[in-house]
Amino acid sequence: MNTDTDDAMAQAELQIHTDSRIAEIRASLRAQGHVSRHHCRDCGEEIPEKRRLSIPGVSLCVGC
Question: How far is CA 42 from CA 25, 59, 60, in A?
């Protein structure tokens, strides 16, 4: 493999690990009763800005 491929693979692995850790932290915060203004309290997906602005205090994404 070349250096560019190695770098891309390392970056992809790091991104997967980072995304997984963020999901774990969000789940832990939800379990402790912390509510995010930007992420759904049920599934953890990001709540679109348009929805957050049109529904003050919204805590669920469109799907939930």
Answer: 14, 8, 7
Which DSSP state fits 2? -
pTM (2 decimals)?
A: 0.51
Task: Give the separation between CA 38 and CA 4, rounded to whole angstroms.
Answer: 35
Please give the residue range of the domain that contains residue 7. Answer: 3-54
Report the number of distinct structural domains present in the chain. Answer: 1
> Does residue 64 form part of some domain?
no
- Residue 22 within a domain: yes
Q: Using one digit for the tens of pLDDT, what is the confidence trace for 27-58? A: 777 777 666 678 888 888 899 999 999 998 88
Asked, for residue 42, whether it belongs to a domain, the answer is: yes
At residue 12, φ and ψ (nearest 5 deg) are: -65, -45
